[in-house]
Write a structure and sequence with these properties.
By secondary structure, the chain is mostly beta strands. About 10% of the residues lie in helices and about 45% in strands. The chain has one domain: Beta Barrel (YmcC-like fold).
Length: about 240
């Protein structure tokens, strides 16, 4: 059973940050995620997966790239085709290759639109740019992935009235930290938010640093073995903001 990640997961944020040897400002479009074409996040960590149809648990270290392969924007909408979103790692099996999805940034929210084929994802991106209200309204609550501004104990995309904070996206922690990541200025402090989606079958925790994106991704199924623990080790950006 894979209730959290059935349609994928994504969280990133953008702001004014220090990356490389100079501080780079976010683009004029107020985006909660750096969706410029060519941006690439490199992750390393470990995964465990119970292979389909057997009791064998596959365990391995993994290096994974998440890349913006195409992007469009207007004055109030931004969309991008993304290859290798981290939500593909839970239940990963040998031979799996990175798929595709579309991220739609509209009205202070980021939505994930599921389209694993590259060409159809590109077509979906263009359609979403033309009618963002239509596509955002069609998404599930769980695909309303990111709501600005972030703040500790903020909740969205599910049962936000539960006292325990389960069955919705929930900002559980907020802290300031200096991150040791290749391509990022070591001395620049980031505000890091830990966002969780907890259910009885499984849980997911994502650390995000505004201006940089996902810095840690953790998933664990509470029954059949399926776990992911990866961290951001480097960030590559081909264009100045």
């Amino acid at each position: 059973m894979r209730p959290i990640l059935k349609s994928g997961f994504s969280f990133l944020a953008a702001g004014i940050v220090g990356i490389g040897s100079e501080s780079l400002a976010a683009p004029p479009f107020s985006s909660p995620i750096p969706l410029e074409k060519g941006n690439c996040w490199n992750y390393e960590g470990k995964i465990e997966t119970t292979l389909a149809g057997s009791a064998t648990v596959y365990s391995t270290n993994i290096a994974w790239d998440m890349v913006i392969v195409d992007s469009m924007q207007s004055t109030n909408v931004q969309a991008a085709v993304v290859r290798g979103f981290l939500d593909e790692l839970p239940w990963y099996e040998p031979g799996c290759v990175p798929g595709f999805c579309v991220l739609l940034n509209f009205s202070n929210r980021v939505y994930r639109l599921n389209e694993p084929d590259a060409d159809r994802a590109a077509a979906l991106m263009r359609a979403a740019m033309a009618q963002p209200g239509k596509f955002s309204a069609q998404t599930l609550d769980s695909d309303e992935r990111f709501v600005l501004p972030l703040a500790r104990d903020k909740r969205w995309g599910g049962d936000v009235e539960r006292k325990d904070g389960w069955y919705c996206w929930h900002v559980e922690q907020e802290q300031t930290a200096k991150l040791q990541i290749k391509g990022v200025t070591e001395h620049h402090p980031f505000t890091v938010f830990s966002i969780a989606y907890r259910t009885n079958p499984d849980h997911l925790i994502v650390d995000i640093a505004p201006g940089l994106g996902i810095t840690r991704f953790v998933y664990a199924h509470h029954g059949t073995v399926a776990t992911v623990q990866v961290r951001l080790v480097s960030f590559e950006y081909p264009h100045s903001f």
